[in-house]
Amino acid sequence: MPSTAFITLLWITFLVAINKYIYQIPGLLFYGLVLLGICCRSLYNWQIHPFYFSTLRGLPQPRAKPHWLWGHFVHAVDDGQYLLDWCEENPDADLMRMLGMMNSERILPVSPRAMMEILQTQAYTFIKPPFMRRSLNGILGNGVLFAEGEDHKHQRKVLMPAFAYSHIKSLAPVFMEESARLVKLLREKVRASEKVDSDQVPEIDVARLLSLLTLDILYRAGLGITFNALENPDNELGIAYDRVFSPTGRTSRIFFLLQSLIPGFRFIPISRNLKLWRARQTINKFAYDAILAKMANHELSAGTKKAPGEKDVDILSVMIDEGNGQWTVQSMMDQLLTFLVAGHETTASAVTLALYHLSLNQAVQDKLRDEIHAKFPAGYDSIKTYEDIESLTYLNNVVRELLRVQPPVIGTIRMAKEDTYVTRQFIPKGTLVNIPIVSLNKSRQLWGEDAREFNPDRWDGRQANNVMAFLTFLQGPRSCIGRRFAEIEFKSILLSLIGNFKFALKEGRTVEFRTSITYRPLGGLPLVVTPVSGW
Ligand code: HEM
Q1: Which of 137, 179, 272, 276 is the most exposed place for a label (fewest CB within 10 A)?
Q2: 461: burial class by Cβ within 10 Å (0-12, 13-18, 19+)?
Q3: Which of 346, 406, 413, 484, when mutated, tests ligand 1's pocket best, judged by the most ligand atoms within 8 Å of its CB?
Q4: What is the residue with the minimal CA distance to atom 43 of ligand 1?
Q5: Taxonomically, which superkingdom (predicted)?
Q6: CATH architecture of the domain with range 149-217+293-386+404-409+472-531
Q7: What per-residue confidence (pLDDT) applies to 153?
């Protein structure tokens, strides 16, 4: 279907032609007619096309009544619970149709078959829509996250050595050392809260601390830089980072939304955009200096053979070492900033959600702690390597189950770049596709009757029975390149925390969650943290 902008242009050209060659339309009437044309077209898109002409109108739709303006969006927020219900209303469907703002249509692939076509066989037909890139404040250049087609394939290929399992394993000691800093900080915080004379049970906001820790880990494992945001949360770079990537407060979030909706919005010289621009400069300069320093170091040590244990293991170093000179400073900047965006909030949310779930499931928390203590009776310091971490089989089950029931990224979006077919259904060019990650992760058809329950034992010696049944990191050529990195990091942080502390929700405490890029607790996650003795 031709876009509204195209039809409007056609309408204006038509009016101008009439004006010139047939009849001189009075000025006010001319503009009135232009406006009328735009209104008619919008009305057609809103109230007529989706219900009477759309080729997608025959697809099953959620039973929930769409809001007159926001469509099904009013239901589709929160933790994806509605998506689950919609899929179960139509257990045999491959695709569903939902309505967005002003009845704009979106399709939802809800069967593994449809998901396979969109994420695997036609991964390069279903591209990331331009508004996704705009929502990231223009910080990202042409990194792998937003590259398409051949360019994407090439970028993945040259990045693979840095994300290969064999390399990521060698980062385990870094993850453990960084996690130890959080353990130390938490102990200090608990001691400080014990000194305060109050009859209130003290709580600690673990969400903020985890966000700082995962940033530190990313800087150290990604760029080889010790950042120490955990101890200095108010440093210049940390503030710049929060401003660009994690806008808080109502106004900031409205600006964030406007930015993604309106092309060029970030170039309007208003105070907020100027602040964002300065923040972007700070982040860029930091990444730029880090790359130049690494490259200089690399050139200095060229020719000197280093033993495996002496080599720098951070991602940037491996990119330079293995890149055979094909990286430019700009292309490295693009990739590093991408990792900082894609790998920070996601992992922070994963561990935050984990602590929330384990606070609600004390039996699982205790069993996990027992495993850690039994396997490593000599204490925390004796866990160092990737093999040590992987020897904890219950930890592995808990982490997989946490990522299944509560994926930090609940869904993502694609757009058909050309007319195509999915499960024999015609999909017109420009159609938006909502990928409901959570709905296949918790599908009763794929996981059985207890699919919605948190049960780590379901993984005991088993795998998911369908490759599309676990979509937390997506699947196919555009799946998360940082998956192994994130999994080992997640395990390192969780074992460090659960081995050393007991986490619980204070009696009567309720926690609200919100979805922006990731699913996170609104206003933090205050937990009662109690050190465990004897380890
Ligand atoms: C628990 C943590 C994580 C989760 C749940 C997660 C999830 C995802 C998902 C769902 C996507 C696909 C997004 C889309 O295509 O719309 C993705 C892509 C990506 N992730 Fe992750 N991620 C995590 C951690 C990381 C980490 C630690 C890094 C890097 C260090 C990373 C780097 C990337 C990159 C570069 C992409 C783009 C891949 C491509 O398009 O080829 N992620 N991630």
Answers
A1: 272
A2: exposed
A3: 346
A4: 480
A5: Eukaryota
A6: Orthogonal Bundle (1.10)
A7: 96
